[in-house]
Amino acid sequence: MNCLQPLQVFLSDSFFGQHLVLKMYVVEDKGGAIALMLAALLFLGTWPAVLTLLEQRGRLPQHTYLDYSLTNLLAAVLIALTFGQIGDSKPNMPNFFTQLTQDNWPSILFAMAGGIVLSLGNLATQYAWAYVGLSVTEVITSSITVVIGTTLNYFLDDRINKAEILFPGVGCFLIAVCLGSAVHTSNAADNEKKLKDSSNKYQNKTSTTGDQELSKGVSDEAGIPKDLENGISHVSNADFNVDKAKAGTAEFLIQLEKKRSIKVLGSNTCLGLSIVFVAGICFSLFSPAFNLATNDQWHALKEGVPHLVVYTAFFYFSISCFVVGIGLNIWFLYKPVLGLPSSSFAAYLKDWKGRHWALLAGLLCGFGNGFQFMGGQAAGYAAADSVQALPLVSTFWGIVLFGEYRRSSRKTYVLLVSMLFMFIVAVGVLMASSGHRKT
């Protein structure tokens, strides 16, 4: 038996010819599930780095998230129309279009609830990245997700995962939360020391004091007015490609602060960590909600109505995620938060700086979530939470692309290595707990 069993083709020979019967793409064993989890890990660890890159180059988060939301939904539609529609509809596994006409609203509502909390979590993290950095944000949110979400999924999945292996892995993630907070505290102290020792005197203006009221008439560093209505971005083309100061230096931090859309130097650390913990709580609930949507553990469906196939559930999940993301970010265009400048929908349409990267991020996140759910349906959603090891990927991008932790203290490096090591151990343990769902 092939581990992924895509599109099984059954040929029956007869005197009059051959009949070709196609079966829906399904994942049926742990090998295939783990392969999908690894792909999801790569995608889900990369898309936050792309959005962080755009924020650090001055693009408004509202503009970026609107682009991201479009392709995030597109990924779900593509999965539903291909994997979910291939082959004939079966009584216990109807295809995508068949399920759209069935009376399965209780499961649909669970799927949509999962999409809502995921969208709120993603919205929170796009601001948290600016305050505490990509690496620490992903570590803390992922660890909270595993501690709460994995525990809920374990009991919802009728304990198909091995508890004696699963929960030590959860404990490792919990330790990673503490180490992640310690890394941020130590790195923030390092940056403060660099700024104090630097000959450059940077006048701190935090995004929380209300002093930074940017609008259409604000000028950039060259004295050229910036007009958001005309779609002029906060930065020039050169800012997307050139970093003059060496990463990790005080000059680098100051230069970065001038370019980025969210001003954070001197801001309250507690504000950033509070946003991170809110995001983590949201993330911890979306996978259990999706689990309920596809497996109906609470018996909310009428007798005889088949469970939502993972592809159909993911479609509804992404619809609600799209509606919340689009609605809130259009509101934030006109009523921005955290001291960001106001904008408009017309300005968003004209802002093409970095749009292709934002669209790519949406596709990566969409396919990453889809693969996670496909793997979870086969091997248990608790084991699928191993994709929350995405900080291993995002930390790599944070160091390579953004110069995080460059020229930091030995204490920060020790804490960073300890945090990553604990993550690697936790991921290995969680994947080892994979079970097999009875169909």
Automatic annotation (TrEMBL):
Q: Which UniProt keywords are listed?
A: ATP-binding, Membrane, Nucleotide-binding, Transmembrane, Transmembrane helix, Transport
Q: Offer a single GO CC term for the protein.
A: membrane
GO terms, molecular function: allantoin:proton symporter activity; ATP binding; uracil:monoatomic cation symporter activity
* Cellular compartments annotated: Membrane
Membrane-spanning ranges: 33-54, 66-87, 107-124, 131-153, 165-186, 269-290, 310-334, 355-374, 380-401, 413-433
User: What is this entry's stated membrane topology?
Assistant: Multi-pass membrane protein
- Please, which domain of life does this record's source organism belong to? Eukaryota
Question: Key word Plastid present in the record?
Answer: no
Q: Where is this region: Disordered?
A: 194-218
State the InterPro entries in the record: UPS_plant, Ureide_permease
Give start-end positions of Polar residues composition bias: 200-212
Keyword Signal belongs to the record: no
User: Where mainly located?
Assistant: membrane
One Pfam match: Ureide_permease
* The family this protein is said to belong to: Belongs to the plant ureide permease (TC 2.A.7.19) family.
Q: What name does the UniProt record give this protein?
A: Ureide permease 2 isoform X1
Instruction: Please report the organism this UniProt entry assigns to the protein.
Output: Elaeis guineensis var. tenera (Oil palm)
